[in-house]
Amino acid sequence: MFLLKEYGPLLNTSVPNFHLPDHRKVGYSLEDLMGSAGLVLGFINDIWQPASVRRILWLQNHVNRFSMMGTPVALLVRDQSHTLYGFQMSSPMPVPFPVLADSDGCAHTKYNMDHQPGLLLIDRHFVLRQKWLMNDERVWPKMQDLVHAAQALQVFA
After folding, report:
1. What is the pLDDT of residues 11-52, one digit of tens each?
2. Residue 25 CB partners (closer than 8 Å, separation 6+)
């Protein structure tokens, strides 16, 4: 018998709430971030790692598409608020979605996202519908996969 460990939270289960600050120390909960159809929730570690910067730039380029589908984007980062502030101030383009400081890693641990960056697609009832765990060579999943999954959330809305 083989036992496989599933990384990230389990699909089709309720996700835990959190309350985390952004770079201005304004707090957000999962409910605050939720759109009419759901939420695309990203997890990364150090915001200044090259792979993390690429992921943020990618999300900046595509955030409007998800927002128009009722699934806004938010990103949880294992950094302090002042580190996120430094990133925000040095970014050539404003980051148009919440980037939240999970400085103690508590939310990453609650979501079982300690070891890999990834994106979670959560429906408006706080149920995880899809997840993508990424290695450093990949920025995020293929856009068509994300869009297809976000469109499917309309069924649960």
Report:
1. 899 999 999 999 999 999 999 999 999 999 999 999 999 999
2. 81
